Amino acid sequence: MVAPGIFGFGLFWVVLYGFGLKYSRSLVRQGITITKGKVTYRTSSYNSQILKTASSLGRKFLRTWFSFGSYFGILVMVGAPILLIVNLIVSSISILDYILGNNDSSNPPQQVLVPIIPGWSIPWTHLTYLMITLIINGVFHELGHGFAAVLYQVRIEAVGFFVFLVYPGAFVELNTEQLSNLSAKRRVRLYSAGVWHNAILALGSFLAQRILPLLLFGLYHHGTGAYVTEVAKDSPLINVIPPGETITGIDHGCVVRSSADFSHCLNNAWHEFTTGASGTCVPKSQVESWNHGHISKNKNGILDCCEGVVRSDSEENSTRLCYVESRSGSAVGFPGYKCMSVREILKVSTARCRDHLDCGKENSCVRHTIDNAESRIIQIHIASKESVLFLGPPEELLHTFSVSNFLPKTSWCSVAIPEHISALLSYMISISSALGILNALPAFAMDGEGVFAAMLDLCLPYDDSDVKETIKLTTCAAGLLLLVLNVLLSMAQLFIFY
Fold this sequence. Notes:
The protein is α+β, with helices and mostly antiparallel strands. It has 15 helices and 18 strands.
């Protein structure tokens, strides 16, 4: 999907650039400029609206608001380089381990900075979330600068919007002479305003995501299970657990109240099995009541002792398998193989086990003979009917079902609505945070450059301006280098591990 997407966007920009060349004069009169890979719209039409909105908030509120923002901006300006240095070290180590063969591409490390490339690091289906998030962040960020400019009587020359490749953004042009004449404290507040607004947007999105079930309480159930929204078409479970069912548990003891619980339970089941806990603890008194079976191999080469065993009427539709004890040390279990009802075993099971030592004196550790390194029996509890038994790797179920945390209360409520809202809020949290951190970095073309320069004037008010300029240029050059190295190494990780 990456190559077709790149080709499509490349063709789009070639056509758009040609259009821009042909109608450049008319477009410029409208405030539109088209360059290679970028479209910009610049206007002064919104200046008065920003002025009115800022004035309606009141000078006292804005002073307090941007005072808090300045403290936050300084804190993030100091913390951003530290965070990027840590990310640089972690990225370098992971790439070095890969080169030396100590790490494979199937085990990606955690990254602080992940380049957002549609079709690669995020699916194309999430492009809408990305665009909406970037537009909201760009506008809210620039409103911060605009409101601060109104507060400190710096004239807004123009506002604008742009699209660079697939990434939208916004900007505010301020009168540079009036800006440079501000006191150092006011410049810190003005330059920190955008980062502060990114942080508020991230915090607001986080809180909205936390209380989303409450906001949608009248329309959706929440916390009652994992609501099945889609089942893989090639899955044998498609007619057994169709969309619309609610999964409430996996095996014994692992309750499912959300999609996160569903993933956790399946991962836990897989972990238990791969660490050798393929058996189940069953009371010895229960085991002794089961029939001995003649052991043989069926046509698939699997040990079977249920052939010829007479079923009771209650067991006609019950799946029966051949079980054998898992011994260790001197523990004593039942001799030989026994044909048992899987549901009865699961009903009386107390825990997963590796051998009898995990079960205590009153229980035996038994496992069915079709257990292997890739499959195990998983009991899926359904809200509306009897539990379903699945034989296979637990991770297969993660790819079989798409589940939601929200169960519609009425038929006209789409389960997709809360999922879209939650996904958008997740993008808002991560991207708002990332944009705030990167903008606070003391590097050229970042808000952190202005904050750092103003802080130099505050801390070194009487020093030679040439000295302060040298410190600023050196620091911003180092910040830019740090950012470039992080982007390059993060791209390398993306290429290796994703």
